[in-house]
Amino acid sequence: xxxxxxxxxxxxxxxxxxxxxxxxxxxxxxxxxxxxxxxxxxxxxxxxxxxxxxxxxxxxxxxxxxxxxxxxxxxxxxxxxxxxxxxxxx
Length: 90
Fold this sequence. Notes:
This protein has helices at 15-27, 30-52, 60-89. The protein is mainly alpha-helical.
């Protein structure tokens, strides 16, 4: 029996439940990961624009955006890992 508000441990031996759990894990921290991807793309675009058309833009701006993007992506992985551990505990 699980505590109220906690989902039971998924049966990963069952292919249907494994697919459902995989889909569930993909939804965890999704906005955080998408924001990280968007920031990384913005940093890449900004670096390309700086090299070609916008030389007065400081180099630190795209680097800062890239660092923030990396933090978002790592945070998404950490949140998903914590979620998975909690789910496996039952």
